[in-house]
Design a protein that fits this description.
This protein is α/β, with parallel strands linked by helices. The chain has 10 helices and 9 strands. It has helices at 16-20, 59-62, 70-87, 106-109, 111-120, 140-153, 168-174, 184-187, 194-210, 222-230, and strands at residues 28-37, 42-52, 93-97, 127-132, 156-162, 179-182, 213-217, 235-237, 245-246. Strands 1-2-3-4-5-6-7-8 form an 8-stranded mixed β-barrel. Helix 3 (70-87) packs parallel to helix 5. The longest helix is centred in the first third of the chain and has 18 residues, at 70-87.
């Protein structure tokens, strides 16, 4: 595991967010949803999905996040997701969503994440940080800088909801993450939609040449699963395999693997 530089723990090395962020004033927890690998019927990763303290939907939490507490919320998400994963005995990758606009200086803002990984003995190379392609980012260069810094620390990087926003291909041209997750709107009924099929095949071809692994999310049918597998996509996520489990690791439905 990468050691955390002691120089970044000193008070004068704290970023603006550390110094100015307001207390949250609300609690939250996580549900974990598996990302499966069809090739060997294994679980590649679990994505940590924010929930209310009693399992309420994500919006019940996200509606309370604003500019005054965004930084602290982003930091708490990382540390709580890691602590929860370790408590559940997770042995796979852990995928955590992050807010680029809550990161002031990547090399400093990552401090609490590194400390949590070290405290709970969670390997850095099993952490995946996802950012939404559709999320508004104030500074595109800032986002690519964050992703590069995270890769330097040994994390895997991912662009979530690829195809949902307007900047996906531009972002991919500037930085090639380890993973992209195809937006579920592209996935829905893809086995019956020629236009979506052409687009998905095109993205897979591009990613193969760039060395980027594709994950298909939002799988809800055997037809979607089988078409995507035929395209060369083997990492998948969705209700077809398992719904998110609140404070637990979900079991994949045995029939979900069947051909």
């Amino acid at each position: 595991m990468t050691d955390f530089p002691d120089s970044l723990t000193s008070p004068d090395q704290r970023c603006v967010g550390c110094q100015q962020s307001e207390p949250l004033g609300f609690d939250f927890a996580f549900a974990y949803q598996p990302i499966v690998d069809l090739r060997d019927r294994s679980i590649f990763a679990h994505e940590a999905l924010v929930r209310g303290a009693q399992g309420e939907g994500a919006l019940s939490v996200l509606d309370q996040v604003d500019e005054s507490n965004r930084y602290r919320f982003d930091q708490r998400c990382r540390t709580q997701a890691i602590a929860g994963a370790v408590a559940l005995g997770m042995q796979t990758h852990l995928s955590i969503n992050f807010m680029p606009n809550a990161v002031y200086r990547p090399e400093l803002c990552i401090r609490s994440t590194l400390e949590a990984a070290r405290k709970y003995n969670f390997p850095l190379n099993r952490l995946i940080f996802e950012t939404l392609e559709s999320e508004h980012v104030d500074n595109h260069r800032h986002l690519t800088n964050i992703l590069r810094e995270y890769r330097e620390f040994g994390f895997k990087t991912a662009i979530d909801d690829f195809g949902a926003g307007y900047s996906g291909l531009n972002l991919l041209a500037d930085f090639q993450p380890d993973l992209i997750k195809l937006d579920m709107a592209l996935i829905r009924d893809v086995d019956q939609d020629r236009v979506r099929q052409v687009i998905v095949r095109g993205i897979v071809t591009i990613c193969e040449q760039l060395g980027v692994t594709v994950i298909a999310e939002g799988i809800e049918s055997a037809g979607e699963r089988d078409f995507l597998s035929d395209c060369g996509i083997f990492l998948m996520q969705g209700y077809w395999f398992a719904k998110p489990a609140f404070k637990a690791l979900a079991d994949v439905t045995p029939t979900a693997w069947a051909n």
